[in-house]
Every structure is written in C-alpha cells, then in structure tokens.
UniProtKB/TrEMBL annotation:
GO MF annotations in UniProt: hydrolase activity
Domain AB hydrolase-1: 34-278
Keyword terms: Hydrolase
The organism of origin for this protein: Paenibacillus violae
InterPro entries membership: AB_hydrolase_1 (IPR000073), AB_hydrolase_fold (IPR029058), AB_hydrolase_sf (IPR050266)
The keyword Hydrolase is annotated on this UniProt entry: yes
Matches recorded under Gene3D superfamilies: alpha/beta hydrolase (3.40.50.1820)
Name listed for the protein in its UniProt record: Alpha/beta hydrolase
Domain of life of the organism encoding this protein: Bacteria
Amino acid sequence: MTSSNFQASIDTPVMHELVINGIRQVYHIAGEGPICLVHAGGPGFHWGYMRMPLLEKSMTVIYLEAVGTGNSDNLPDGDYTMPKYAYFAHKVAEHIGAQQPFFLGHSHGGFVGLQYALDFPDELGGLILYSSAPCMNQDLGMEQVQQLENFIQRWADLPEAQDAKQAWMDMITGKAQDREAILKVLGRLMPAFFGNYWKLTEGIDEWQASMDFSVDPNRKPYMWDVRATLETIQTRTLILVGEYDFNCGPRWAKEMDEKIPASQLVMFEQGGHLNHVEMPQEFVKAVIDFVSQASK
C-alpha cells in the first residue's frame, strides 16, 4: 500500500448545508458522475474517515455529516432513531435534486441505508451496505465479542491485540464517554478494525490522526432490528464485507444477502472493517462495477 491511497484528490470537498425542520444538516460534495450519498458509521464518527478519492473519479460523492455529528446540529430531544437518520439523508437527496441516487453506508451508516430503502422504497438507484448488519442489539454485540476473540487468536503473539479487546470492553461498558476518551480508546482498538493492521504503511498515521468523533450527552439509548423485513427491500443492493471484520462481519453479510431479493455479496479476503482504506482499489472496483450494472 502506498501513500497515494490515502491522499486527497486535487479537488477538496465543498461544504454545504440546509436546515431541515430547524436542524442544520451539513454535507460535502466531491467528484463527478452518478450521485452517491455516503453515510459514515458510529453513530458519531466524522465523515472524513470515509473520504474516497478513488471513488470521486467516477461518482459525485455526497459525504453526509449525520445529525449529532461534526458541523451538523444535535437533535434537541436526543432521539436519534434510524428513521430519523434516513429522513435527513433523504432530505439532502431531495435538496440537491438527486434522481435515483446511490447510498453507501458504512457500519451504522449501513443501518441507515437499510432504513432508507425501507422508508423510501422507490427513491434509490442502488444500496451499498459496507461492513454493516441488519440489527443493532444484543445479538450484534455478542457476535462482536466472539469475533474479537478470533482476532486475538490470529494475533496471539502481539500485545496490541490483547489491548484492543480491553479497549472494546472499555468502550461498551461506558468507561469512555467524552470525545477525548473515546478517541484514545479508538486508537487502541484500531488494529482490530483491519485484516492486517501491521501491513498498513505510508499514510495510515495521517489518516488515523484525522479521525474524529462527536458525542451528544443527550443521546437516548436505541435498539433496532429489521431482519424480519429484509425480504421486502426491492432496491438493488451490494453487500461488502471483510473476511476478518469483527464489528459487522460475514455472518450478517450472508444473512442480508440471503434475505434481500436483488442483492449481491462481495467478500474481501483477509479484509477487515475498513476495506476502503486497507484495499482501496479492490473496494472501489466493486462499487463501480455494481453502479455500472445497476445503471443499465
């Protein structure tokens, strides 16, 4: 991997905003070609870690700053439900006049994408579920712990692997609650997000240092599960997953592929949760191939 995989394109994404029901919604536009809304994960991760200069060469990429994140406003009631995230994304698409846009959601952003396809069934030209899952509940949490154990077994001789598991426990047990503490925990957890963190070379430090996170202390707890309704999604869907993704791994990708009628699954061998960083050429090729097929 070379540093060029992490470098920004010549054109810097241009920031825009609109007000939706009194809430400021910010988004950034870069590239040219078919429109693709990109929703980052978390909830709380800033959009920048999802920057994909290679994709911008073929698509107009709309990087969303989800409500409660970055420059967008917090929701006054702290009620961040998946339908609300989908609604705000849909309003951005409406505002820019996008006809049949694509939606690429990473991790929690994929949850939003599924909800978007359910709530606005005729609006998307294609749905791209990237390292995602059809639920956000105890089932997902139990699978994450199991896959972390597998990660530790693969890298048993590295102390960073053991610390990554402890970092995850610190995260889910609430020991890290403010932005600074969460970013420190994420730094310790970072090896688990990749198929082979220790093979990443030039540019990864800069990329990792740019990662940011927002915390709304008023955010209400929220559980979500759409496994029973996946069969009703008629939108063409691409499911992308890394073989070693501990966070939203192959179990969920295979279930979504089995249940969503017009879906296809691409698994990145030895990939993790962040394949657009770890293997950007292969990642973008999979997206562009899907977009080309869906646009015919």
